[in-house]
Amino acid sequence: MTSPLRLAILGCGTVGSEVVRLLHEQSADLAARIGAPLEIAGIAVRRLGRDRGDLPVAPELFTTDAVGLVKSDDVDVVIEVVGGIEPARSWLVDALRAGKSVVTANKALLAEDGASLHDAAADGGADLYYEAAVAGAIPLLRPLRESLHGDRINRVTGIVNGTTNFILSAMDATGAGFAEALEEATELGYAEADPTADVEGFDAAAKAAILASLAFHTRVGAADVHREGITEVTAADVASAKAMGCTIKLLCIAARGTDAAGRESVSVRVHPAMIPLSHPLASVGDAYNAVFVEAEAAGPLMFYGRGAGGAATASAVLGDVVAVCRNRLAGVHAPSESAYADLAVRPMGEALTRYHVSLDVADRPGVLAAVAGVFARHDVSIATVRQAPAGTEPAGRGVDAVLVIVTHTAPDAALAATVEDLRGLDAVRSIASVLRVEGGE
Ligand code: NDP
Ligand code: HSE
């Protein structure tokens, strides 16, 4: 067996500590699979004095000098499990330019400035692997960047945030409101103390950008992704979805299409949407992730598993470590970023979707016709209409009714303009909810 490959581990929190543990527990197997033993050169952390339990590693390996560790000539592979944009970007760019292989779980950095990392990898002739950055343990990025490179991917639809999937699943199961379900997610350790990145869709948007870049051979960044979170989803929305045989999920959707000028382009978006219970993603509950890929020759493919958690994410990190170490020993590196297609990203207004609109209206002659007229004016076709009485409304204005309208597919801008005009109708008392509907048409 050859001399050891030396690893610099940046970060030893939820994911990093499990990486260290698995490296220790599986050292013999990993060495056999790679053809050389792995050795930890150092572990960079923020707080040297932090209690790290019974981690099987010599205390003198810990350092707060991440820069020194990354620059050390004695390091072959840098594993970054710190997170955030800086200083992680500078560390990784330096490592890649120096020809060191990098394995990272940092979706925020890849979505914000993946270009700098890919360029540095190309400059340094180094490997950049990031399987753990999207959907945790699920082998997904390698299939997209290798196995499916002979095919043409048309659409990727995914549940890529476990925290929000837990919250929406709890709302669906118990009828709880968003705040109550978030509280439960926090108590059980799914949601972080500051849940903004998850519930406002930032985490899913970063993952959507990474998925779209790989699926469509195009650089897509977080800023290109239309993003809406789940904070506005109400118990009434969930009940309404149920009444339609649907459930609500926070979806990331990356799709090929044509722009207004007829050029091939992509749209990338993250938002809550109703999906029929028959959709493959509808049964993905709890904090699980799943991604549904539609490829031209392969057809539909479904990837499912744990999208977060220390051990699950460390599994993906170690898979990458084995791959980059094998490459080093063979004297090769993985193909560089594939961004040759360079497709334009369509604005959200041009994305094709369907709307579910719930309106509180006056129950009198001509109201349905007036409402339908607004849809017609924007060239939006109505698929179904349901009306139910909703109790007595203020004196002198007749009896309220609830109108639930589901549209056929139309550009998002036309649907949004329709809803805006509905607000101006005298007979419309309020718009109780507007949700997109995906799948099933
Ligand atoms: P944690 O917050 O648990 O751990 C972060 C680690 O980074 C800690 O060990 C911390 O040190 C160290 N650190 C922070 N700042 C510095 C610094 N300036 N210099 C050196 N070390 C520093 O994060 P996670 O393990 O949860 O996440 C790590 C990465 O993995 C992130 O990019 C995240 O998005 C990604 N990821 C996480 C998943 C998860 O389930 N947690 C799932 C998929 C991806 P100290 O211990 O001293 O505080
Ligand atoms: N906060 C993320 C989630 C962790 O809930 O899915 C994994 O990226």
Essential attributes:
Alpha-Beta Plaits; binds NADPH dihydro-nicotinamide-adenine-dinucleotide phosphate; alpha/beta; 18 strands; 441 residues; six-stranded parallel sheet; Dihydrodipicolinate Reductase, domain 2; Rossmann fold
CATH level-two architecture of the largest domain:
2-Layer Sandwich
User: What value does the average pLDDT take?
Assistant: 95
Largest sheet: 12 strands, mixed
- Which descriptor suits the 3D outline? elongated
Give the quaternary arrangement of the chains: single chain
Describe the structure.
The structure is a single chain. With 441 residues, the chain is of the alpha/beta class. The protein folds into three domains: 155 residues, NAD(P)-binding Rossmann-like Domain (Rossmann fold); 166 residues, Dihydrodipicolinate Reductase, domain 2, CATH 3.30.360.10; 87 residues, 2-Layer Sandwich (Alpha-Beta Plaits). It has 14 helices and 18 strands. Strands 7, 8, 9, 10, 11, 12, 13, 14, 15, 16, 17 and 18 form a twelve-stranded mixed beta sheet that branches. Helix 4 packs parallel to helix 5. The longest helix has 21 residues. It is elongated. The relative contact order is 0.13. About 1% of the residues have low confidence. The site of NADPH dihydro-nicotinamide-adenine-dinucleotide phosphate has 24 residues, from helix 1. Its EC number is 1.1.1.3. Catalyzes the conversion of L-aspartate-beta-semialdehyde (L-Asa) to L-homoserine (L-Hse), the third step in the biosynthesis of threonine and methionine from aspartate. Its cofactor is a metal cation.
